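Friendly challenge for the regulars: who can give me the structure tokens for this chain first? No prize, just bragging rights.
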Amino acid sequence: MEMFENVLEASKEAGVDVFINGSSIHAGTGDIAAYTKDSSLKETPQPYRKSIDPEEDFDLRKQKPSKLLDPRAENPDSPYGESKIQTEHRTRQAVQENKIKTGVSIRIGGVNPADQETQEGEPYYSTLYLSHKDLGRTVEHIIEEGRDMNGYYQIYGVSDNRGRIFDIENPFIGEH
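First reply, four minutes later:
Bragging rights claimed.
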């Protein structure tokens, strides 16, 4: 948190218009055991289990979109997720205190150096994968549009994958 505070302060001193906080899906997946270290689909509640399970023909995005995880809900799955919520709170507070004009916390999903939708040992990775292209496009739109917007925003950064359980609509580019 000390390092985060230093970056936030340096951004204020530099007159940064749009501050982008790299948060994590782990700030909101506390009930989704499939995304934990043990990857337990069995302990994941419905309807998320059916959407994540590659053996099921259920798509939460289409069949129960109201159940998509809200990027503002605080439900950490680990101490790491809790630390990301703290950075979200500090970003929001900096906007409220007029230290930065526009703050955006992106709850980033699975990004990897090879830009692959699957990862060995992570059977449900494809449902939270964020492609390099989508990440770049999201950041680009936030920077472009954020200059004309004031306030704090919190979004999920996940590609529109099969089995996705995250609401990815956002005021900068809509659903991507």
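The CA atoms of residues 128 and 170 lie 17 Å apart. The first helix runs from residue 2 to 14. Your move, everyone else.
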